[in-house]
Amino acid sequence: MAQSTAHRRLLQEYRALTNNPPEGITAGPVSEDDLLHWEALIQGPEGTPFEGGVFPAELKFPKDYPSPRRP
């Protein structure tokens, strides 16, 4: 089965995050079977009221990602 543009793009972005992770953020697909559903953990930045906190996030990408949604 051919990969959709969304799957190719998300794989590319996941590799970039893995190779050069931003400080205080981890993110990736929930499973290999669904690249459109990710989970992330964001650490609160030092010197802010959020310091010491870890904030979970759920990311759900549309099937036509990265194309913008049209009205």
Automatic annotation (TrEMBL):
Keywords: Ubl conjugation pathway
Transmembrane segments: none
Source taxon at top rank: Eukaryota
Pfam family, one: UQ_con
InterPro entries: Ub_conjugating_enzyme (IPR050113), UBC (IPR000608), UBQ-conjugating_enzyme/RWD (IPR016135)
Residues annotated as domain UBC core: 5-71
Cytoplasm listed as a keyword: no
Protein's name in the database: Ubiquitin-conjugating enzyme E2
Species, as recorded: Colletotrichum liriopes
Taxonomic lineage: Eukaryota, Fungi, Dikarya, Ascomycota, Pezizomycotina
